[in-house]
Write a structure and sequence with these properties.
It comes from Nannocystis pusilla. The chain is of the alpha/beta class and 335 residues long. It has helices at residues 3-33, 36-61, 65-74, 96-103, 146-150, 154-157, 188-194, 199-213, 216-226, 242-250, 262-269, 271-283, 303-319, 325-334, and strands spanning 83-89, 112-113, 117-125, 132-140, 167-173, 234-240, 289-294. It starts with a helix and ends with a helix. Bound molecules: guanosine-5'-diphosphate and magnesium ion.
């Protein structure tokens, strides 16, 4: 049991003892101070007052009680099944929910939702001896990353000072969604048609937009909010919608880019962001997985590859006991 959970248990016991003590003293006082006929209604009225006072005292003494109680109830402390918690961060419409659908093979019903997060869960079995665990994915859907700091749901993040996230995936793409006259997203055929001229410039525009969203400062905020070196063992960049790029490359829309150097082209586009992530991870002593994974949440291409390394690291970390994630990842990198 962690120091934090021990503190919470002590607080809970103290709160209950305080309430019970107050109640007991009141009953004794009543027995001495009142004649028998006044006894029953007076006790009833005073019991109510004592309970209300107790609750008020608890609120003042143990404030803020709600996050604390939420934490005890929801962080999974004492939960039997280990959880690999993966946070997906990215601009709206870059494909986070579609990626989750691919990973959980069609199950997209969120088990918890807030204004800014959906949380999905699926059972898994390890490659290392068949132990069970859950993969839990949180899809950040707010537009402003500041919301991440203001209201991160404790059930997924874990309480401040004891964060529980194992992997952070930054999701970017290469194509901005286009809408028709009535506001519906256009189909891929129309999107490809629109991207078939000035292709390089249009893609660069989207990359710039993505890099503006996931900047040095936002990375810092995200790590500040989520990071716990005992838990985080992967930070990766996923570049989505590679199916569309492949078609445009095959059509010859990007001069000098072929299917054999497509990965190189994308890595160059996202080199500044990759460098920022690499530096942030180094500063926090996480040796993440820093190639950009080119994936398609639509076709499933490369999605399993990107996730399998995250799951492998989690499994090794978890079933080796309480090893510090940082030491473990360094060991892996060296051998
Ligand atoms: N062609 C293509 N479209 C995609 C891909 N991933 C997502 N989309 C589409 O992009 C839109 C936004 O996806 P969604 O998963 O809702 O993005 P989110 O807002 O980041 O959760 C949807 O219309 C998806 O069908 C992909 O890999 N290829
Ligand atoms: Mg979504």
């Amino acid at each position: 049991m962690t120091a934090t959970s021990t503190t919470r248990r002590r607080r809970l016991i103290a709160l209950l003892a305080l309430q019970a003590g107050t109640f007991f003293v009141t009953i004794l006082a009543l027995m001495f101070a009142h004649p028998p006929e006044a006894f029953v209604p007076a006790i009833q009225a005073l019991s109510l007052v004592v309970v209300l006072l107790g609750a008020l005292t608890g609120r003042v003494l143990f404030s803020p009680p709600k996050p604390w109680l939420d934490a005890v109830a929801e962080t999974g402390q004492g939960r039997e099944t280990p959880e690999c918690r993966v946070l997906l961060i990215g601009l709206g419409r870059s494909g986070k929910t579609s990626l989750i659908r691919q990973v959980l093979t069609g199950t997209t019903r969120a088990e918890q939702s807030t204004k800014t997060f959906n949380v999905y869960r699926a059972p898994r079995v390890t490659d290392l001896g068949g132990a069970r665990f859950d993969i839990v994915l949180a899809d950040y859907q707010g537009q402003k990353l500041s919301q991440l700091v203001i209201d991160p749901p404790i059930s997924f993040f874990g309480p401040p000072g004891d964060r529980r996230i194992n992997a952070i995936i930054f999701v970017v793409d290469l194509f901005r969604e286009r809408r028709d006259a009535v506001g519906n997203p256009v189909c891929d055929a129309v999107l490809l048609e629109q991207y078939s001229h000035d292709t390089g410039a249009q893609i660069q525009e989207r990359v710039d937009e993505q890099c503006k969203y996931i900047s040095e400062f936002t990375i810092e905020i995200i790590l500040e909010t989520t990071f716990n070196r005992r838990q985080v063992c992967s930070i990766i960049l996923v570049v989505n919608k590679i199916d569309l790029l492949r078609i445009l490359v095959e059509r010859g829309c990007l001069e000098g880019v072929s299917s054999s150097n497509m990965e190189h082209y994308v890595s160059n586009l996202y080199a500044p962001l990759l460098n920022l992530l690499r530096e942030a991870a180094r500063a926090n002593e996480v040796e993440g997985l820093f190639g950009a994974y080119l994936v398609s949440a639509r076709t499933g291409e490369n999605v399993a590859v990107a996730f399998s390394e995250i799951l492998r690291r989690f499994q090794l970390l978890h079933w080796r006991g309480s090893t510090d994630a940082r030491e473990f990842v360094q060991e892996m990198a060296h051998g």
